[in-house]
Amino acid sequence: MPLLNTSRPSPVTFLLMGIPGLEHLHVWIGIPFCSMYVVAVVGNVTILAVVRAERSLHEPMFLFLCMLSVTDLVLSTSTLPRMLCLFWLGAHDITFDACLAQMFFIHSFTTMESGFFLAMAIDRYVAICHPLHHATILTHSRITIIGIIVVIRGVAFFSPHPILLKQLSYCRTQIIAHTYCEFMAVVKLACVDTGAITRYSLSVASIIGSGDAILIAISYAFILHSVFSLPSREASFKALGTCGSHVCVILVFYSTTGFSIFTHRFGKNVPAHVHIFIANMYLLVPPFLNPIVYGVRTKKIQEHVLRALRVKVS
Length: 314
Hints:
Blueprint: E1 13-16, H1 26-53, H2 60-77, H3 80-89, E2 93-95, H4 96-129, H5 134-137, H6 140-158, H7 160-167, E3 175-176, H8 183-187, H9 195-228, H10 233-265, H11 272-296, H12 299-313
Helix pairs in contact: 1-2, 1-3, 1-11, 2-4, 2-11, 4-6, 4-7, 4-9, 9-10, 10-11
């Protein structure tokens, strides 16, 4: 692939390589990716439809779940269709502006996902540790404010990314060694010093991610303390089972996200295909698992979905 001989701030297109070293498996890798995307879309749309139709579900837990579902839909849709075109149709080229737009959606909505996980953990803490005050603490107006803060935080901290990259000069290859337009993958193509931009991006991602993860851990520590203090053993196991499934989803999200962040900073010896494959996981797995864990395993949503299916069948 020829190199760019001249420096220019805005190249016409970039070329997405995919997963380096696994190009011969792209078609097969696309099959599970596509299956997970379909489940994510159907599951999250179902949750949104059920909660919207049933006023009895207009509670803090389900309202936060709807916010998480919207985030999952945007996050997965901003990457998967384009990725499948690369895997199955060999469509490697992506325009510069589309690349920047995809980058903004990925990073800002990943931050929003982290924020909504924290909001849901706080909701579970209030519901289990302070059940008598749950309705008065998490009112609809406060839920709305929390949602707005999470969205503004994601947009504010990651809006500079595409703006900064738009100003850079690109005199290296146009090939992005990734399946999507990740910030660090694009920065490496610039022919100017990008140390300050890189430090800003990694610092913001690390601070937000670690801060949310620590607060979630503290919330669940209090929850577990209250759960084990319940007089009924059956109630303790029921609450523990619910918390356990939620913690699994959160661990998958933060472990894959953290691996991607710290690999850029410290993991110079991590093979590129391993790094990129895991980087795809935090965009795929949480949107796929969230409807299953938060939806299928939630009794109220199960009942409403089954009731709707019975009506349609009859």
